[in-house]
Amino acid sequence: MCGIIGYCGHRPAVPLVLEGLKRLEYRGYDSAGLAFLQVSKLEIIRSEGKLCRLEEKVAQTANTFAPISIGHTRWATHGLPVEKNAHPHASNSGAVAIVHNGIIENFQEIKDELLAKGYVFHSETDTEVLANCIADELDGLLQRHFGKSYAGAAQEFAENAQENSLQYLELMEKAFAKALQKAHGAYAVVLLSPLVPKHILAARLAAPLLMGIGIGEYFVASDVPAFLPYTRDVVFLDDREYVVISSGGYAVKNLYTAEPVQKEIHHIPWDLQGAAKDGFKHFMLKEIMEQPKVLRDCLAGRVQNGRICLPELDNMPVPESIRIIACGTSYNAGLWSQYYLEQFAQLPVTVEIASEFRYRKPILNSRELIVVISQSGETADTLGALRLCREKGYPVLGICNVLGSSVAREASACLYTQAGPEISVASTKAMLSQMVVLLLLALYFGQRRNTACPAEEVLAELRRLPDVLEGTLADMREKAKEFAYKYAFAKSFFYLGRGTAYALALEGALKLKELSYIHAEGYATGEMKHGPIALIDPEFPAFALAFDDENFGKVRSGILEVKSRQGKVIALLQEGTVLDCEDLWYIPKTAIPEFLALPAMQLFSYEMADYLGKDVDQPRNLAKSVTVE
Ligand code: AGP
């Protein structure tokens, strides 16, 4: 998954594009680049590594006030993260440069055709193939209209660019559209060309792309933070649409018919401050500490007079079963909710990993409700699962955090988690907000099915939790530091949980893995005696969730089994419970302890990663949203 941006306007475009890329760096950061036009000549600057390397190169080589530029931060899918594979990629002719997010699945077939025509390639990327495919289509049109290809008459075309601008733009749009119609897979692509020096073209298929509408300036980007300081008026492009922007305006068209498409302009409510660190050392810490507010925001407007209000679902029939599909942390949130959905809504619930579900030819039935959960709303496997179900005519409920994202727009209905932008790659507040929405969903269907669910008590607890969490976060952080320093050099960790704590154990293990790079396994406590306990020794500690519920006795036995084999245990338990264990971590007693246990485990992983000097907000090999398979 990559970050892309394009700008046409009245400001110096290169520094603005660099600034926008910084706010997109969470989307991928193993290489970066930008392109601009200098006296109608295409200039491209690229670098390996993080964005600061590109900034240094630009400072050394580009003194420009060019008002048009495109930029890219990369998370490698085709080809190593080295400079030659960094975007933008130019065509052999120099007629076009593009930046691209996604995967062109038939790139090899297109590449073979171009190789046979004599094209050469300098990178291993599918993007360079697409750039040459567009240029090839363009040359065919230029030959037909002017009797010459671009490469052979670049100077002449440049000299006539002003006089022939409309005709050149029309031909460029045709070439752009024709090439993209040949491309299969996923793309958000932005094009810059000396032939149309005042315009940027952009298009999308199964990858996010939106347009920012300023005053005398226009943006295209993968995500809102890229241009939020300049405008909050946003148009979300849909698949098989393209847009042409210039400093004078924009036009959205259908990629296949070139018919104009009317688009709604959304006004983004949250400001850049919401996407900035607010003084915290890392986005992750900020987002963990925001969770009391997230709890409140997620509840806002959804409970009236003791009743759950989810108008998005009122036209949906009450299902006879629910199937939840997601990836990563979102899957863990779904697994956690299974207990509450079955208990409160009295509906059978299955929870599936999206990448498994979509390829196993699942048997669906019309009386089940499919629920896909995705913070970003762009995760390829989750989106693929959604599309599979929609193609079969099944209703799909999306639970999503990003306004206007693909999941939000393609689901039959969408419940937004209202958690605000989550910039850190590790998902924290998003999961907490997903749990709130899923709990409300359980109560909502319980209400519609008239089950005897304790809605009043649960809602009272949900309303109380933000203050309880707010009051204990600082202590939690101190405890997290204490244990992180003590266990920082463990090579492996078990995370143990039972009942509603089991899914949290999986999440705790995922957080430790992805942040500190320490191997960690989440396990059902009751499973330890079926093999894993063979691994226990003083070097293989366990983080055990021991809530004061009907499982406490069995969990305590499981912990003692570990301790009796010289295993070390950090036991996270609720005030008032007693356990013979060296490292006890008490959290306030609440009826739904998971809403406190989750932030505690997030802080443990955060402090561990920070102590070990890891890249907390952008862990190696990871990206915020996995928009490729
Ligand atoms: C969680 O910390 C990871 N960043 C990852 O597992 C993530 O939850 C997963 O990729 C799903 O992302 P989504 O919620 O945006 O679909």
Could you list some keywords that capture this structure?
37% helix; alpha/beta; binds 2-deoxy-2-amino glucitol-6-phosphate; six-stranded antiparallel β-sheet; eight-stranded antiparallel β-sheet; 22% strand; single chain; 629 residues
* SS content category: alpha/beta
Compute the average pLDDT: 93
The tally of helices reads 17
| Topology, number of strands | 26
The biggest sheet, with number of strands, parallel, antiparallel or mixed sense and barrel status, is: 8 strands, antiparallel
Helix content: 25-40%
Cα Rg: 26 Å
**What is the end-to-end distance?**
10 Å
Q: Spans of 5+ residues with little confidence (pLDDT < 50)? A: none
Bound molecules: 2-deoxy-2-amino glucitol-6-phosphate
Shape: elongated
